[in-house]
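User
New here, help please:
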Amino acid sequence: MGEKKNVYSEEVKRNVIEMKLSGEYTNRQIMEKFGIRNKSQIMTWMRWFRKGEEHRLGQPIGKQYSFGKGPEELSEVDQLKRKIDYLEIKNEILKKYQEIERSWNQK
């Protein structure tokens, strides 16, 4: 059976980020203090923080940000910038896939 997912409060997530930024604590120490099972969870919160997506820290489980459904306070320019970033990444992935597909066909 699947494991029950841990739900962490926004306060815990912010504390983890502060501890990481201080440089005084290892991932293992932070994980033990807050009962976090995997360091990838810490890395995800740090990525959101670095990208300025702190609003995601307060979203409930299963309701995470998806493209085009961010906070309403974003200006139209910011929304368009996000859309451009999304499409550029998508384009890069498609180019890489085409390169891989070509290498398969050459064999």
The chain has a mean pLDDT of 82.
